[in-house]
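ESCALATION

Customer reports they have been waiting on this structure for their group meeting. Please prioritize. Original submission:
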Amino acid sequence: MKSLTEFIAQSLVASPDQVQVDQSHQGNRVRLHLSVAKEDMGRVIGKGGRVANAIRVLLRVAAEREGQQVTLDVMEP
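Update from on-call: job pushed to the front of the queue and completed.
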């Protein structure tokens, strides 16, 4: 999940070297914390949160294939 999130975020932002994803586990639930540069927040969140929600949908599908649940939090810099 972490590598998928990094790949998607790095593809969207202007500063891919500042993308950071932290991962924590609680049973079969995975929690991801995505941090990007301040000027890239709009690109990751999107208009009305559409891009962030699309990333969450992709992560849920990938997690379901592995029998897990995933949540994504976009952290403010």
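Sent to customer with the following note: The chain has three helices and three strands.
Escalation resolved.
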